[in-house]
Amino acid sequence: MRFSAIATSLVLGAGLILGACSSSSGSDQSSSSSEVSTVILLTDAPSDDLSALQVEITRITMTRTNGNVEVAFDAGASAGSVVNLLQLQGVNSLLATASLPRGRYTDMSMTFRNASAMDINGNALTVSPSGSTTLAIDLVPNANITGQSSYIQIDFDVRNSVQAVTPGVGGSVTISPLVYASQSLPGNAAPVREAKGVVASVSETELTLQKGAGTMLIQLKSTTMIESGAGNFSQPLDLTSHFNVGDDIEVRGGFDPQSRVILADTIELWGRQGGGSTGGTNAAGEVTGLVTATTASTVSLLVLESRATGVSVGSTAIFDVGTSTTILVGNTLQTKALADLSIGQEVRAFAATLSPLAASRLVLRETKLRGTLQSVDTNANTAVLDIARVEKISDTALTGLTDPITLNFNGTLPAGFVANAMVEVEGIFDAPAAMSFSVREFEVENENESAEVEGTTFDVVSTSPFELEITGEAEIPGVSPTATITVRVTTSTLIVERNKATNATTPITLAELTSGVSGIRYGELKAEGTWNPQTMELTASLIRADVGAETNEDELEGTSYSVTLTSPLTFTLTGAGTLDGSAVTNTTITVVTTSNTTALLRSTGSSNYNTSTLSAIQPGLSNNTYSEVKVEGDYDSTTSTLTARVIRVREQ
Question: Residue 287 class from Cβ within 10 Å (0-12 exposed, 13-18 middle, 19+ buried)?
Fold first, then answer.
């Protein structure tokens, strides 16, 4: 992930960053002359279970050592900053700018509401807790806002914040946010995926964007594009001919933390104050989603993000498309016809009206595909991709998707693009008849980049370098699901301690971790990071040490099972896990299913679980074809029976 900001700045997600600069000492001061400018950015870490997690940030505060609470951002009665956390990996969303007093800060808080989520198959999920939620975030150590620019990085760990997911139609997700914060020195400018706000002032070559109580300067580059309902425009640009004071705009570009300037790649006019028509903009709202169907006059979108439309994430929005609707390829002057839209293409639709939904403008956005290369043609500079995910949606959820699809490159094939390589590409789907995809960005994925191990048996095996051995459940390519893994801890490893009963999480030092391990303080350790198949080591980016038992969590995982009844599906399972709040090993239980039990299957060669059915997994359970079975649900110790909420099976 990349994070950036300036003066005092905040970023949330896989990292929320606050940076500060002033010329005073670190003592608490309250005069206005001691205040420094503040920028708030948002970014995020991934989740394996969700394809979208949208929240509306309404308030951020910081608490000083003298107890004074300083408001960094407050939406008040207005709409807050709506973001899809899972769209912000490696980039930032500017939330607000403000002024904060210099001095030391001990903690901060963030309030969000209207959370919505979608599973990887495009099903909307009910999110708990609902309503407004305020997170308390400790600054460990305290943040010292002085004359030197710095950042406070707040880590919103989405993957580990998802406590329970029931995928499928009518499913749900429970979120217990794990958030960490620490101060560090600034790095280079980070890309700003979106900075959305109101035009405070505008000249021919620059404009001022108002976010919260503060402002941010937006400047042009030679390649800056303007997108509006009237069309797309390139240099030479006169901003006064496109924007008025009070307009709602969205800016994408690079943020310079020293000058506090966003150098714009694109400036998009998405709402005119007062409903004016100049530029053909709309004030009704917008939806970003994947094309699932088109007719001669409509386009259907699986909703990934929604603003001011009343359309929920995970639903299907059907927009009327008429002769006045403009269809554009983002960041270019190229226009498209409705018939050019392919299944799976990401589109941002701007609503002219909400009832019925009618589009004033459709913008084709770069769409991310992930999968495995079936073949390559170095002469034609093409490759055939077996798609696994479109954005974060499973390919099986998009009926009519061209899969496999031919990738077209403008130039020679990138290094590493060979048969069977796992890759990620971004670009635009060509017209449906072409059955191809024009690649603009690409990456050869290292399957070993992401690895994790979680277990109840662990010990320190080396102090220089510092290494742990953890025995338990491993999510590592080429490694047994149950294994003993050597984990290397570096100076950049984030170490946190979690109370499983309360889910309170606190950053700790390496010395505290060592003491806790030797003192048998922890019931379980989890390490996430990068796996090196040559050294057979996991270099940890995060270590979580769990204290105590988590309430209402019964689960067992094992490789020995036997079906005893087919209707309802009932089987015995022997393995390790947590039952009635206690860790167990080599324990045999009876698993009973109901009509509410969710079945998840991880196919051979896949790194993800997909929704299945009990009838579909029953033959594999009867024939012992699964390498691993994990069940979650409610355990009755008097009968040694677990009523399953979720069953996960992994093929050999």
Answer: buried
